[in-house]
Specification:
single chain, 206 residues, mainly alpha, Jann2411-like fold, 8 helices, globular
Length: 206
């Protein structure tokens, strides 16, 4: 498989796993924003970078995707559908709008499908959750993303879920005073400030 170098460059500015996954489109504010995820291989690679899976699991999943292309292609469609369901859901929250019944139904249907594979097990430190998918299942990628979205929706501070006004990325504002405006000050924040400075001085020079 050819490595998508864009996956190596993608930033993780969302502050939450599910928001980082939503942000795998370069710019959400343009009609045909560049999608970093073009294949199951891209998704596997991104999941490794996002620390959803380890290197051994990444190798196993890539081998599985190569050997069962029909299944991996079908999973990729499901995974992108999951991303867009989550985007619609959290965009409503970021814009302080009511989530539609249809969007909630879509989300709840996914919860019913995935959470039947979630269990609690003993560990050396007490109890922890574990997904009982086979070790070569691609759902080991999407399940933690959905669980993170579930946790954020129920237990996160919804007024801290924001939309970057420059690129449309969603992020969780964990700053002390809750004043974060941009997905990243080094990219969108500095770009907007530079543009504002340019227009200000251009007007002054006329």
């Amino acid at each position: 498989m050819v490595k998508n170098l864009n996956i190596e460059k993608i930033r993780f500015d969302g502050g939450k796993l599910c928001l980082n996954y939503i942000n795998t489109i370069h710019n959400r504010l343009v009609e045909q924003g560049k999608d970093y995820l073009q294949s199951t291989n891209d998704l596997i690679h991104w999941s490794f970078r996002a620390k959803v899976i380890d290197s051994d699991t990444m190798k196993t999943l890539k081998q599985n995707a190569l050997g069962e292309t029909d299944k991996s292609d079908a999973f990729f469609v499901e995974a992108i559908n999951l991303r867009e369901i989550l985007y619609t859901l959290f965009l409503c929250i970021a814009r302080d709008k009511r989530i539609s019944d249809r969007n909630l139904d879509d989300f709840n249907n996914l919860l019913s499908l995935y959470f039947s594979h979630l269990k609690i097990i003993h560990s050396s430190t007490g109890y922890r959750e574990e997904w009982n998918y086979p070790p070569d299942s691609l759902y080991l990628i999407s399940a933690p993303i959905l669980k993170d979205a579930y946790d954020l929706l129920l237990y996160g501070k919804q007024n801290r879920i924001r939309e970057c006004p420059n690129c449309g990325w969603l992020f969780y504002d964990s700053s002390k005073n809750g004043s974060r405006r941009w997905c990243s000050m080094t990219t969108c924040g500095s770009n907007v400030k530079a543009l504002s400075w340019y227009h200000k001085h251009k007007t002054t020079d006329i």
